[in-house]
Amino acid sequence: MTLRVGVIGVGMIGRDHIRRLSAVLSGVEVVAVSDVDAERARTVAAGVPARVLATGEELIADPGVDAVVVCSWGETHERYVLAALAAGKPVFCEKPLAPTEGACRRILAAETAAGRRLVQVGFMRRYDPGYRALRAAVRGGSIGEPLLMHCAHRNAGVPAWYVGESMITDTAVHEIDMVRWMFGEEIAAATVLVPRRSRNGGGLRDPLVLLLETAGGILVDVEVSVNIRYGYDIRGEVVCEDGTASLGEPSPVRVRRAGLAGDPVPADWRERFARAYDVELQEWVDAVRGDGPLGPSVWDGYAAAVVADAGLAALRSGNRVPVSLIDRPALYAD
Ligand code: NAD
Ligand code: ISE
Questions:
Q1: DSSP-assigned beta bridge partners for residue 190
Q2: Ligand 1 pocket test: which of 19, 59, 68, 94 has the largest number of ligand atoms within 8 Å of its C-beta?
Q3: What pLDDT band is residue 334 in, cutting at 50, 70 and 90?
Q4: Closest of 185, 186, 176, 177 to residue 222, by C-alpha
Q5: Cα separation of 13 and 233, whole Å?
Q6: Which residue from 50, 121, 122, 315 has the highest number of Cβ atoms inside 10 Å of its Cβ?
Q7: Count of C-beta atoms within a 10 Å radius of residue 194
Q8: What domains lie within the chain, and their CATH numbers?
Q9: How much distance in Å is there from the Cα of 195 to the middle of ligand 2?
Q10: By alpha-carbon position, which residue is closest to atom 2 of ligand 2?
Q11: What pLDDT, on a 0 to 100 scale, did the predictor assign at position 262?
């Protein structure tokens, strides 16, 4: 049976996910949308076509909606995920699960009380072919044990709602999750280093470097630059005992013109991670329809939020901040 999905939040990623759910993926249709911007909701719904519900809560309660996709701003995720859990409906929640540890703990408590997994968090890098190949290379054993990882997360610019804390809670949170998944270890401490500011950064402390230490002693540096102008550039190189492995260039083509040769740089995350989003949401649809496991969990969302909180504390204090997690509930055993 076709999965009938309702989407809350029809901004940039909401619209992109509606397009793939409607036109790219199989076994799923978008039947309802909701957004605090009612005019935007009507315009997007007309193009699907789908029904418009006045609030996210109404959409979740609607009997014609089997599962929910949350694409509103991070601070609003908690209330919609909790409402979906209360209604017993599967929910795909864009990252971050919620921007604070407290909010993630409340979601964790609600899902563990329900006794079954209903939530998947949108950490799409786990589905990117490049990151999957990098992880396989690191775990394959031919280049020894991992020691270090160098990452860069560069955005051409940022949306209007973006604030200083977003550099960690919204942007670097992808590397925080990726590192946990890449090495299969929790992160034990965070430090933030701030170089001179870019003149393109507005009021942001842009760029910054987030240093993560895993429980097993791997050190990861993440350059976060969010007004780099030239495009969207995601880099990663793992240094192991006997060799290194790094992400390849995302472009399959090299262009030569006017005396220069180069690779086209993606404009933003929609282009760079298009394949990852497709695989992520198809696997989610298949899992909800009963064919396969769910992906990144509330535990992953919680752990990422605790590390992000440590990163924010490190940014404020200039100190190295240890990370402390609660015991992992059995529901989220590996
Ligand atoms: P956006 O501002 O373009 O869109 C957000 C939409 O949510 C807007 O239309 C806004 O009106 C609506 N909204 C806000 N509060 C609402 C509420 N209480 N109820 C219903 N609708 C509400 O933002 P975006 O870039 O699409 O980001 C949305 C979310 O997706 C964020 O959590 C962001 O971190 C995440 N995101 C993830 C990725 C990724 O790579 N996985 C990429 C971009 C954004
Ligand atoms: C955005 O919300 C995303 O999730 C993108 O993947 C990230 O690159 C960007 O910095 C965020 O603002």
A1: 212, 321
A2: 94
A3: confident
A4: 176
A5: 18
A6: 121
A7: 12
A8: 3-123+276-297 (3.40.50.720), 126-269+304-322 (3.30.360.10)
A9: 21
A10: 170
A11: 95
